[in-house]
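debug: dumping io for the single-chain case to check the tokenizer round-trip. Nothing else runs in this session.
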Amino acid sequence: MVGRWGTIDYQDLMDFTDEVLRRYPDVDADRLGVCGGSYGGYMTNWIIGHTQRFKAACAMRSISNFVTSISTCDKGYLFLLEHMGLNALERKGVIWDESQILWDKSPLKYVRNVTTPTLFIHSNTDYRCWMDEPLQMFTSLRQQGVPSKVVLIHQEGHELNRSGRPVNRLIRLNALCDWFDQYL
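debug: decoded output
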């Protein structure tokens, strides 16, 4: 996957979806949803910018713009550059020299293609994926008239779904279920 985000991973997920639909004819292809968190949130944002086959989406703790997230992620810019397949140490760590590559791998670049109603669930103390990441997608979708919503969970971090307070985990699950009930 290193250096190939948004390529073979996207194709694998589309192939998997096709295979599920082939094997299980009772699954309604007109009522598919897509959802993911962290890297899965990135992929959710990527997917909705590259296909309209999903009728609803939920991106949790997601990245939308690598140009901005590269300098704010708590794991540091080297972590993200490595995953982008860019050896920052060989380049003396100059991240802005790679801004076109970072932008090309950013779901926000493809936001004009999005028609999928999208829910963004994010924690306000997530230092891995800062709050500006889902807000960039949300704001762009709203400007285009795409139904979208942000659910902000207070005093939780990136691990909300695994180690968050039970009440906040329920808020997340209820928001997710309500969104898919409404749009699927």
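debug: round-trip ok. The chain has one domain: 32-183.
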